[in-house]
Amino acid sequence: MGSSEELVRATACDIVERLRKNNITPHDLLDALESRIRKVDGQVNALPTLCFDRARAHADKLMKKPASERGLLAGMPVPIKDLTDVAGVLTTQGSPIFKDSIATKSNIVVENLETNGAVIYAKSNTPEFGAGAQTFNEVFGATLNPWNLSRSASGSSGGAAAALATGTAWLAHGTDVGGSLRNPASFCGVVGMRPSIGRVAHSQAAKIDRTLSADGPMARNVEDLALMLDAMSGEHPGDPLSLPVLPTSFLAAARSGKKPKRIAYSANLGISPVDPEVAEITRKAAQRFAEAGVIVEEAHPDFSEAVACAHVLRAYDYVLTKGKLLKQHREQLKPEVIWNIEEGLKLTLADIERAEAQRVTLTNRALAFFETYDLLLCPTTIVAPFPVEQRYLAECNGTKFDNYVGWLAIVSAITVACCPAMSIPCGFTREGLPVGLQIVAAPRGEARVLAGGKLLETILGLGALTPIDPRPGT
């Protein structure tokens, strides 16, 4: 079956193939994970809540089925972000308000994963309510970057990214509003995708058509991520916006070898400062597409209203989902969450109407842009991983931000334009810190993102960066 160390370093696709052939069992994988967690997780704090008893009980039930009936993941262990309910497991949302909260029912996304053969063994760390793209909270503390333990793992799926990077997960679940899948993937040298609206069904809360937030996959390479997206996708009556499974799997799309004809690169999407070194690394990576005969040009859609649009719609969403908490538990909320709710309470109907109209305009511009270009490439994060003591990035390349989410414009613009996007590793800074490249396509264009991402991953030779042992800070 292979040693525990060998299993930890295997790809998810390889692991699932072995599970299907009964060469290994889910219990072998859970044993390997327990060993690896004991070795490394105390250094990074990626998986603060473990539920191995639940995992083993689920694995026992799964193993009673024929291999052909164990789902796409066939018994693959998967951690779930601590914003998302798993029945019988602690779900704190990174908040002291919910530090003792045990979920009674699983979120639809968890139910679908388990139906597709996932075995849930842990909850991954997140900032309070997923806010801020820096994974720290008063319940479990901060998640550290495995490439340099003095740096941030970003967020809000920081625990998931750090687990993947350190070998305590092969695949992971995350969520994304303003880059929460993409940012930590960039900082930790792994892969993360925000899918299209409705691609991954999830339980509804506060508003049926909340579309800023999306559940999505994280992995160590593009093919593994595609496998995870296949396991997460599909319609569900509990999510009226959810989409049916496509005829062609996302893993097949990633492996298709289809090349884009023309791609665009932008260092800043016209709306954000960017660290010069990050711009240089991402631009050089994008230009490598030319080696495959792809036309590479510098261009981007007009995103001029994106920052204002995202600010209003995010604040509105905070009022819908967290307004009651401000009234009842203000003293237990972190300042950034309070600010975001209060920004929402200031909104008028005219503000909301304007932002919704801007979103329509931005999406239409993106659709028009992708009539010319197959993909849009840009930095995922505008800086390399910053010191973990910083609550958020306050300035970049001489520009100071007005608020704690100002540094996320380059990812939140893609969110409000309704486009799927994936971050893949594309190089390292002079300090040896990973840099991510964001690959974007038109709405419902995940297959195109995955095929292009796999092509560039192969050209760059960066598909096997992780897992690594945590590296001391400098």
UniProtKB/TrEMBL annotation:
<feature type="domain" description="Amidase">
    <location>
        <begin position="29"/>
        <end position="450"/>
    </location>
</feature>
<dbReference type="InterPro" id="IPR023631">
    <property type="entry name" value="Amidase_dom"/>
</dbReference>
<dbReference type="InterPro" id="IPR036928">
    <property type="entry name" value="AS_sf"/>
</dbReference>
<dbReference type="Pfam" id="PF01425">
    <property type="entry name" value="Amidase"/>
</dbReference>
<protein>
    <submittedName>
        <fullName>Amidase</fullName>
        <ecNumber>3.5.1.4</ecNumber>
    </submittedName>
</protein>
<dbReference type="InterPro" id="IPR000120">
    <property type="entry name" value="Amidase"/>
</dbReference>
<keyword id="KW-0378">Hydrolase</keyword>
<dbReference type="GO" id="GO:0004040">
    <property type="term" value="F:amidase activity"/>
</dbReference>
